[in-house]
Amino acid sequence: MEFSHKPVLLAQTMEALQVAPDGIYLDGTAGGGGHSAAILAQLKNGRLICVDQDPDAIRVLRERFGHRENVTIIRSNFSEIPKIISELGIPSLDGVLLDIGVSSHQLDTAERGFSYHHDAPLDMRMSQNGRTAAELVNELPFAELVKILSVYGEEKFAKNIARAIERERTKEPVVTTLRLAEIVKAAYPPAKRHDKHPARKTFQALRIAVNGELDRLSEGLDGAFASLKQGGRLAVITFHSLEDRMVKQRMTKWCEGCTCPKDFPICVCGNRPKARLVLRRPAEAEERELEENPRSRSAKLRCCEKI
Questions:
Q1: Any residues with CB less than 8 A from the CB of 286 and at least 6 apart, and which?
Q2: What is the DSSP code string of 218-276?
Q3: Predicted confidence (pLDDT) per residue in 130-166, tens digit
Q4: How far apart are CA 220 and CA 279, in angstroms?
Q5: How far apart are CA 81 and CA 16, in angstroms?
Q6: What is the DSSP letter of 141?
Q7: 247-269: per-residue pLDDT in tens?
């Protein structure tokens, strides 16, 4: 199986992680193994744990790295990192990489139902388990649809779209990607239909809801940081503002020190920084990468080190 996935911000990520040859690293969203391969190339006596929830990715990872004695491949969600390393008998990690979001393989494989460019069943499940996007679209009440589109998609026309979905699903269940895309397009104000694809934010919102992405990210950040040894690094790549905002706020909180008023003669709060920022500003794709991989345009890398 070919799992097409170009690793974004590869050079910046490797520089941020500073892979130690004898370290233990975990790629929590291993996908097609692009970032994992780069980490492996720098390991000598070290170990790599590849984690992904997508069974397609797991098959490809086993084909690529299954023969390597220093690689462990596990089908799971990165929110389970503390449990994963506990079961492996690993006390702590030297580094964790999380590349959040949908992979090129998932987008380009029409039958997975992630893309509004192909006609396919409205699925969007990264793990290929649980409720599909079609079930949400056809079963959720109007208010819930509006909330999902507004919060996860930051969609200004959420009410218009939810009302159109509610109307159309009474005629016939909405079960394909192109039908949903057409419903969204028709619900958009005519003047706004040509800026970007009108269905982009709706598909993002449904994908996040189907996979519980923000909840998993919150759990994954805390679990990954807790699993680091002193001096260990957490690198996170995000692709939209909701994810990036959560990562930024969490890392800022870990780096926060004393919160006492400035006029206090001594610290009474007892707060000490748990981390330091490796990157003061998020790393973004340079011109050459943007030309080779347009999907890297929205990618941002943040990294912190446990102290």
A1: none
A2: HHHHHHHHHTEEEEEEEEEEESSHHHHHHHHHHHHHHH----S-TT-SS--S-----EE
A3: 999 999 999 999 999 999 999 999 999 999 999 999 9
A4: 20
A5: 20
A6: -
A7: 999 999 999 987 788 888 888 87
DSSP 30-83: -TTSHHHHHHHHH-SS-EEEEEES-HHHHHHHHHHHTT-TTEEEEES-GGGHHH
Average pLDDT score over the chain? 93
Euclidean distance between CA atoms 122 and 137, whole angstroms? 9
Buried-exposed string 211-232: b where 16+ CB fall within 10 A, e elsewhere: bebbebbebbbebbbebbeeeb
Helix (H) or strand (E) holding 94: strand 93-99
Q: Are strands 228-238 and 300-306 parallel, antiparallel or unpaired?
A: antiparallel
What pLDDT is recorded for position 101?
A: 75
Return left, alpha or beta for 89; rule: phi > 0 is left, psi -120 to 50 is alpha, else beta: left
Task: Round to the nearest angstrom and report the end-to-end CA distance of the chain.
Answer: 41
DSSP structure class, residue 204: H
Give the integer Cα–Cα distance in Å for 235 and 13: 7
Q: Which neighbouring-strand residues pair with 98? A: 236
Q: Token match 């490797």: residue?
A: 14
Q: 281: which residues sit within 8 A by CB, 6+ positions away? A: none
Residue 305: its H or E element: strand 300-306
Q: Is the Cβ–Cβ distance between 185 and 165 less than 8 Å?
A: no
